[in-house]
Design brief:
Blueprint: H1 2-9, H2 15-19, H3 29-60, H4 67-85, H5 88-109, H6 118-140, E1 156-159, E2 162-165, H7 166-187, H8 190-200, H9 202-207, H10 212-234, H11 244-259, H12 264-284, H13 289-303
Antiparallel strand pairs: 1-2
Amino acid sequence: MFNVLVGVQLHYTWPDAENSQEEAIPISGESLLLQLLNGLSFGALLFLVASGFTLVFGLMRIVNLAHGAFFLLGGYAGIVTMGITGNLIAAMVAGIVVTAAVGLVTERFLLRRIRGQELPEVLVTVGIALVVTDLGLAAFGGNPRSIQPPAPVSGAFDLGPVTYPAYRLFLIVLAVLVFVGLYLVQHHSRLGALIRAGVDDREIAGAMGIDIDRLFAIMFVVGAALAGLAGVAASGALTIRPGADTDILLFALVVVIVGGLGSVPGAAIGSILIGVLDAFAKIWIPELSIFAVFLPMAVVLVLRPRGLMGRSA
């Protein structure tokens, strides 16, 4: 099973990193900067996915294996909307709304009935993932699809010695904005205080009159919406296709294990680390690129099983 997952992971990479494996790239200041930017932009995409995943686990203790399917669903919704409107913001809103609605239905009518039962929760989320991916295959076929970034985020910027795609810089900015928003909500709002109370002690929080079911629904919907946003964002730099859900879910799992389950700052740190390592490894040591991504996860599991930013029980 591990070999199958590793084989899948090889297909999900930045296009220029994939093509550059055919010839060695000399180490220079320009190549270092270029690969650093590639790693940061891919890490930004990983953060958009992993932040929702780790939020759902942090409050609900659900390892949502349908998270990759929500990413795929959001990507398809964004591609359709972009084709109709030509507006990237509308595409992102569509991806968020569609995945949020599916997440709400999933939590309300499926997961809520089996809350606290770990194996049924895993099986239900796996089943949802299979249904969503099969419906996507039936509706859109097996060909990779993507969107053409609109004029404001197309083209390239001159960054000193290198010229870099504007859309990938947009991904970095988007991830920073999402991180700031999540941090402010989590630490400087009443909702964030309620969420922290639910994370620390759900039983006492419920006894104090906090509606835990409502908090669970909100966090699951937010997690699904972030996956949908990531799907739309990814469709402008990569391709949305059958199997992309598994690929990105594998990366997200590595990120949250390294950063610490339930920690948004941990997801940010893990995303940057994995994104940069993946970018450099695929260029300079492509035959060991899988090892380079999974090595930090193995080291963290041995030295700090709760992750770099994981909290003690």
